[in-house]
Design brief:
Layout lengths: L9 H31 L13 H4 L2
């Protein structure tokens, strides 16, 4: 069963707080890196069209 930090002694709460900070910092930095790379990458996105191009219709 999960223990909540409020029911722990003060010394254990400090450890829990440090681990919580470390986990948030680690995953937050990964998320920010992924978002940064998504903004910096220059990939053209091609959207599929339901219409056929004119040059194909003419053949």
């Amino acid at each position: 069963m999960q223990k909540f930090p409020t029911g722990l002694p003060a010394s254990e709460r400090k450890v829990v707080r440090k681990w919580q900070f470390a986990v948030v910092a680690f995953y937050g930095s990964l998320l920010s890196f992924m978002v940064l790379m998504a903004f910096l990458s220059k990939q053209d996105v091609q959207v599929a069209k339901s219409e056929t191009p004119q040059r194909i219709q003419g053949k």
